[in-house]
Amino acid sequence: MGGTIAKYVKQRKKVIKVVFSHGEKSIPHHDEGVVKRARRRETKDASAFIGIKETIYLGLADTRLKREVKKKNIEKKVYDIIKQYKPEKIFIPSALDIHPDHQAVHKKVLEILDSRLVSYRVYAFEVWNIMDEDYPRYYEDISDYIRQKMDYIKKFKSQWMYMFTLYLPAYFRARSYGRKVKVKFAERFYRLR
Fold first, then answer.
1. Could you give the angle at the alpha carbon of 134 between the alpha carbons of 130 and 136, nearest 5°?
2. Which domain holds residue 158?
3. pTM of the predicted model as reported, rounded to 2 decimal places
4. For 32-46, how does the pLDDT look when each residue is reduced to its tens digit (9 = 90+)?
5. Number of domains in the chain
6. In CATH, what number is assigned to the domain containing residue 114?
């Protein structure tokens, strides 16, 4: 959703990024500490590039988020972040994303909001989706921000072997979504709440 982030920043909206895990197991043949530091540096650089003013790290274990998010202190931390910033919109990974950590984040954020009986506009974004969600769709025109989106993706150099498989599909998906709403490029979201 890099194009939407760039657009919101241009509109002077404050974008807060919450990182549940550093992805330290994403490169199995590298030391986890080295990967964690690289991912944190890349996230900082990418956030500065696109205009995200604040990134909050929860420090959960990569590939174990399904168990990790069940901890009570994580529920409190996430709820406290929401309570502090009172976001206009919350964006979470799609439930149909094939990455189990993305699924865990999706499920936990919705559980927190539902259990606290708080009402926020919540949208799901696609990363590794191979299927469409069965929710109302919302398209954001990113025609003026497609270059920033693509350059933002390139900032995550340690993830390049994964990002490479997303890079061209992200461009063509944005073009396809743009056609659906009669603009050059768009990002699609699913309205969950």
1. 115
2. 2-191
3. 0.86
4. 567 678 888 888 999
5. 1
6. 3.40.50.10320
